[in-house]
Structure formats: C-alpha cells, structure tokens
Design goal:
The chain is mainly α and 61 residues long. It has four helices and no strands.
Length: 61
C-alpha cells in the first residue's frame, strides 16, 4: 500500500490537473504525430504527449 502524505498527494493532483489543462480531449483527438511523440532526444524542451505520459506523470503509476 502507498504511504503518501498530503503534500505528495497534492503534487500528484497538481500534475494530473496540469496534464488535463495541456492535453485536453479535443487536443488529443486532433494531435499530430509530432505532438504525439517528438523522438528527437536532443530536445531539452520536450512537451509531447508521450513524454508527458512516460515522464511527467510517472509518479501517478
């Protein structure tokens, strides 16, 4: 079972809400291949959907 304090839970919720704000259902429905995955590893400012799921939301499981 997870042992999460209130601060950690709030961080997780904030991250999820940020994801929903950036990746609205409409944006997901209409995303381009580049928006879905930007595989250029030398890009330090990745903000593609795959990066969000694999890295930015990692703490959600």
């Amino acid at each position: 079972m997870w042992n999460l304090d209130e601060k950690k839970l709030q961080e997780m919720l904030d991250g999820f809400l940020n994801f929903q704000e950036v990746w609205t259902l409409e944006k997901v429905k209409n995303m381009t291949l580049e928006e879905y995955t930007n595989i250029k590893k030398d890009n330090p400012n990745r903000d593609d959907f795959t990066f969000w799921i694999e890295s930015k939301l990692d703490n959600l499981g």
